[in-house]
Amino acid sequence: MLTAKQRELLVFIQRKLEETGISPSFEEMKEALDLKSKSGVHRLISALEERGFIRRLANRARALEVLKQPDDVSASRAPQLRASANDAVGGNIAAPRAVPSAAYDVIDVPLHGRIAAGVPIEALEGQQSLPVPAALLGSGEHYALEVSGDSMIEAGILDGDYALVKKTNTARDGEIVVALIRNEEATLKYLRHEGGKIRLDPANGAYDPQIYDDHDVQVQGKLAGLLRRYH
């Protein structure tokens, strides 16, 4: 059984797929269901996925496929779906229109202020979002930070770039991470483990590595991509 909100979201997703061939954005789903935050959308999507009504297409940030409709959705409420010989008995397996290539999909990624690529500065939480081509992202949850500073220029990361970050609390040596230092400041650096310490390496010969006790550093994500604006 689905809740009223789960059923409403399922019908909305299918209607958008039929009309445009593209899954609705989280912002569109939030507004359509009159929810207060996108976290509510995440919970509804996860519930529908667990119950086998939808699935997320692999390696595509904004691509959902409707697998079936609930039995109690009437023809007047549900979108009209084309049947095929492979439909399950009862006709409740949907045959949605093919979703376009991920290169054309766009997802609104939360934009959480600025992050230092030099001396650590405060990483601010914000309510803004940044539209990002889904092809730049892999699976998982992502957010964006505006880069401040020049300590990562030899890695091609410049002041004013937008770092696209995959949320994770683990990373391997040599990966570029968002490191939260003493629960106060965040910085973008190469991660290294060295003799029980954490070393955060810049990519600029003018800067020295930063060395901290292991308990003082928390990985909050690793770099997944960059966006750059030219004025």
Automatic annotation (TrEMBL):
Residue ranges flagged as DNA-binding region: 26-46
Domain of life: Bacteria
UniProt site (Cleavage): A117, G118
Alphabetical UniProt keywords: Autocatalytic cleavage, DNA damage, DNA repair, DNA replication, DNA-binding, Hydrolase, Repressor, SOS response, Transcription, Transcription regulation
GO molecular function term, any single one: serine-type endopeptidase activity
Pfam family, one: Peptidase_S24
Keyword set includes Metal-binding: no
InterPro entries on file: LexA (IPR006200), LexA-like (IPR039418), LexA/Signal_pep-like_sf (IPR036286), LexA_DNA-bd_dom (IPR006199), LexA_repressor (IPR050077), Peptidase_S24_LexA (IPR006197), Peptidase_S24_S26A/B/C (IPR015927), WH-like_DNA-bd_sf (IPR036388)
Domain Peptidase S24/S26A/S26B/S26C: 110-223
Catalytic activity from the UniProt record: Hydrolysis of Ala-|-Gly bond in repressor LexA
EC assignment: 3.4.21.88
Domain LexA repressor DNA-binding: 2-63
Residues at the active site: S151, K189
Function: Represses a number of genes involved in the response to DNA damage (SOS response), including recA and lexA. In the presence of single-stranded DNA, RecA interacts with LexA causing an autocatalytic cleavage which disrupts the DNA-binding part of LexA, leading to derepression of the SOS regulon and eventually DNA repair.
Subunit structure: Homodimer.
HAMAP family cross-referenced by the UniProt entry: LexA
Family statement: Belongs to the peptidase S24 family.
Name of the featured protein: LexA repressor
Source organism: Alteraurantiacibacter palmitatis
Gene expressing this chain: lexA
